[in-house]
């Protein structure tokens, strides 16, 4: 899977969005009901998956899945060039 | 800014409660936690309190509290570090240590304060807290106030906890935080497994036993008895206002560590100590549990199973919790409130949990049957579930 699909899969596996249709335009707060503590689940999973460090404060302005993708690619451009299991 | 402009920012929107025709919060109870309780002059069955053992209105507990008022008065008007350290305070610390099987204990004005005060004095910015995703707000807020790294692990998932620990290097200290009983669904933490994993990775376990103390284990001593954990290496916290039918919160653990907290926790040092009557009531509850635990716990578990069975037989879906909590899955906010409202209209007080306390569409209605309920009351609850509740909520 590509980077976008990997991000969506991580979000689905680490939130109550498991049984929901998650796309890049999904609003993680409004559509998945993720609060600031839930977002730490996503941050931890992203850090573990990509071996990166994400300060919690980076997630403060995040609303949609595409915001997460943009945030990670700005900091770690190489992540977008790989393929994932 | 005028006064009007200032205060108009802080208006609670009650339209949802009005639309649903029921506000389940701040219901005024005009009696003690007897069977029945009185609301608006009417009799109700109480399945909403954390009065698991039914000792909140026990005559022996009330008498002990009366006697302590006669001897010590209403308050010691001081913090524990000053004049609040009444003889009963020290005795209760000793008895709670014996009860939980730990070396030493300190008592805070509330369980929330105990949890909130603990983390800032033991952790710094370079430390890591790994916490169960479903942990209580007081634990999370206490941890968040430090500004250290927080990593949640999936609820009661030991494999995920192990994974998170394996990937967490370069932290000065690592603390793993969980509750013993998760109060909205009644699930019980695999604390024995958590302790074992912590020892493997050099982490310190912290357990909040608020819904376990008095309830879990053969003699009601809580999660450490339930999981047969001797020489618990971690930090133990609990509310004293649930099964133990008093107020306050405790932190227990190694003697030297508790001595350190006594002089370090702002929530203890700067808060007026529990009044003597509250301490005396708790001491009496521990005494009663020592002699009567078998009979009380048997009744509590029997009621839980009978109410859960009646709900399942009627078609309601329950959380798969093993604690003496019956948690009915309501799903949407509307349906959750509908169940609570139907119970209320049939004379039963329950506790609905709706977002943001639970995830969207994760609404639950919690029922806790205290051991003080009369046999005929439980039979009536079962009849209401199988008839009126089923008809009003499922048919």
Question: What is this structure's SSE topology?
Answer:
The complex is a heterodimer of chains A (85) and B (395).
Chain A: H1 3-13, H2 36-50, H3 65-75
Helix pairs in contact in A: 1-3
Chain B: H1 3-8, H2 15-20, E1 37-39, E2 42-46, H3 59-72, H4 87-100, E3 104-108, H5 111-122, E4 128-132, H6 137-144, E5 149-153, H7 158-166, E6 174-179, E7 181-182, E8 187-188, H8 191-201, E9 204-208, H9 223-226, E10 235-239, E11 249-253, H10 255-262, H11 266-269, H12 276-314, E12 326-331, H13 333-345, E13 348-349, E14 351-353, E15 363-367, H14 375-393
Parallel strand pairs in B: 2-13, 4-5, 4-6, 6-9, 9-10
Antiparallel strand pairs in B: 1-2, 3-11, 7-8, 10-11, 12-15, 14-15
Helix pairs in contact in B: 3-12, 4-12, 5-6, 7-8, 12-14, 13-14
Describe what this molecule looks like in 3D.
The complex is a heterodimer of chains A (85) and B (395). Chain A is mainly α and 85 residues long. Chain A has one domain: Orthogonal Bundle (Non-ribosomal Peptide Synthetase Peptidyl Carrier Protein, Chain A), CATH 1.10.1200.10. Chain A is built from 3 helices and no strands. Chain A has helices at 3-13, 36-50, 65-75. Chain A is globular, with a radius of gyration of 12 Å. With 395 residues, chain B is an alpha/beta fold. In chain B, the strands form 4 sheets. A 7-stranded mixed sheet of chain B has the order 3-11-10-9-6-4-5, sandwiched between helices. Chains A and B meet through helix 2 of A and strand 5 of B.
Please summarize what this structure is.
The complex is a heterodimer of chains A (about 80) and B (about 400). By secondary structure, chain A is mostly helical.
């Amino acid at each position: 899977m590509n980077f976008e699909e990997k991000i969506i899969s991580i979000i689905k596996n680490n939130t109550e969005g498991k049984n929901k249709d998650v796309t890049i335009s999904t609003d993680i707060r409004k559509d998945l009901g993720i609060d600031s503590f839930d977002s730490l689940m996503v941050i931890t999973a992203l850090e573990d998956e990509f071996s990166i460090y994400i300060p919690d404060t980076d997630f403060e302005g995040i609303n949609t899945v595409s915001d997460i993708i943009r945030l990670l690619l700005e900091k770690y451009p190489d992540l977008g060039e790989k393929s994932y299991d | 800014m005028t006064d009007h402009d200032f205060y108009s920012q802080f208006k609670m929107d009650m339209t949802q409660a009005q639309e649903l025709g029921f506000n389940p919060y701040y219901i005024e109870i005009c009696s003690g936690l007897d069977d029945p309780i009185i609301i608006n002059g009417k009799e109700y069955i109480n399945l909403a309190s954390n009065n698991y053992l039914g000792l909140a209105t026990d005559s022996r507990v009330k008498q002990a509290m009366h006697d302590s008022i006669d001897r010590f008065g209403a308050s010691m008007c001081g913090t524990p570090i000053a004049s609040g350290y009444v003889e009963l305070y020290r005795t209760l610390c000793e008895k709670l240590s014996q009860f939980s099987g730990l070396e030493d204990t300190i008592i805070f004005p509330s369980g929330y304060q105990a949890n909130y005060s603990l983390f800032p004095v033991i952790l710094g910015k370079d430390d890591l807290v790994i916490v169960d995703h479903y942990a209580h707000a007081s634990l999370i807020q206490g941890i968040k106030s430090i500004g250290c790294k927080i990593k949640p692990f999936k609820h009661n998932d030991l494999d995920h906890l192990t994974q998170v620990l394996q990937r967490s290097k370069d932290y000065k200290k690592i603390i793993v935080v969980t509750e013993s009983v998760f109060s909205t669904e009644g699930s019980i933490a695999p604390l024995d497994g958590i302790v074992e994993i912590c020892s493997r990775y050099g982490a310190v376990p912290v357990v909040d036993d608020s819904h376990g103390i008095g309830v879990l284990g053969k003699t009601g001593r809580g999660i450490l008895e339930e999981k047969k954990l001797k020489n618990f290496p971690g930090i133990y916290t609990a509310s004293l206002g649930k099964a133990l039918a008093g107020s306050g919160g405790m932190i227990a653990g190694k003697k030297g560590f508790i001595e350190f907290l006594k002089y370090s926790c702002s929530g203890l040092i700067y808060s007026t100590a529990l009044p003597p009557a509250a301490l005396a009531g708790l001491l009496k509850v521990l005494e009663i549990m020592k002699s009567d635990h078998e009979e009380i716990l048997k009744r509590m578990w029997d009621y839980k199973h009978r109410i859960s069975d009646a709900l399942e037989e009627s078609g309601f879906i329950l959380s798969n919790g093993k604690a003496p909590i019956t948690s009915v899955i309501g799903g949407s906010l509307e349906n959750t409130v509908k169940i609570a409202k139907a119970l209320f209209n049939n004379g039963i007080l329950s506790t609905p949990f709706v977002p943001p306390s639970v995830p969207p569409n994760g609404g639950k209605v919690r029922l806790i049957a205290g051991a003080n309920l009369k046999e005929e009351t439980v039979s009536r609850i079962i009849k209401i579930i199988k008839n009126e509740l089923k008809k009003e909520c499922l048919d």
